[in-house]
Design a protein that fits this description.
about 210 residues, mainly beta, 2 domains, 4-stranded antiparallel beta sheet, globular
């Protein structure tokens, strides 16, 4: 069972989210450049700051040990976990494909910047949480007619959607991540109060 990053009080608003691509660039003597894209889809790096983490289990306040225990369960940067970004975790009416009467498997995806050319940037969703509805041309489909792979975000239909049917979905999702470092500094700044000035992790592809 996948670990889910805990939602804890004390999280400051100085949250940083960084989409990262990797491009190899070779420049000829003439100055002409050749580009090779290693990542067709970005890796997302997150940086969180916790202003306070309480350490008073007897009173029911246990954020410090919860976060420390979670980090230890992951064994630092070794293990992976699921993170739900509070500002980016669900879509509604997202197109995931068009039926052709033969294809039965479609990848969940989300569009970033739908007003941009071609409907924006399409990014596959590989860690879905809850798929609440699937539609064919706006008509809700029975959940018994399809399944969703929670480890890949693939939607598998028992029968291939008819040619020309627009397939859309309402769903929520996680980012599959790992910690960037094997150690983090927890600071005890007051009696039973701790802080973590920077906790970083990055999305991974399985």
């Amino acid at each position: 069972m996948a670990l889910i990053f805990p939602a804890l009080p004390g999280l400051a608003w100085s949250v940083t989210k960084t989409p990262t691509f990797q491009t190899r660039i070779q420049r000829a003597v003439s100055g002409r450049e050749l580009h090779a894209l290693d990542y067709p889809h970005p890796l997302w790096q997150f940086s969180l700051v916790y202003d306070f983490l309480r350490d008073n289990p007897q009173a029911g306040y246990d954020e410090l040990r919860t976060l420390l225990g979670f980090f230890m369960l992951c064994q630092g940067a070794f293990g992976t976990f699921l993170f739900q970004d509070p500002s980016d975790f669900q879509v509604a009416g997202q197109q995931v494909g068009i039926g052709d009467a033969s294809t039965t498997v479609f990848q969940l995806q989300r569009a970033m910047g739908t007003t941009l050319p071609a409907g924006g940037f399409l990014e596959p969703i590989v860690a879905p949480n809850v798929v609440s509805a699937i539609y064919f041309n706006g008509v809700t489909q029975a959940p018994t007619t399809y399944s969703v792979d929670a480890t890949t975000g693939l939607v598998i239909f028992e029968t291939a959607p008819s040619s020309g049917l627009i397939i859309t979905a309402d769903f929520s999702y996680y980012f599959r991540c790992r910690f960037i470092d094997d150690k983090y500094d927890f600071e005890n700044f007051m009696y039973r109060l701790w802080q973590l000035k920077k906790l970083t992790f990055i999305s991974v592809r399985s």
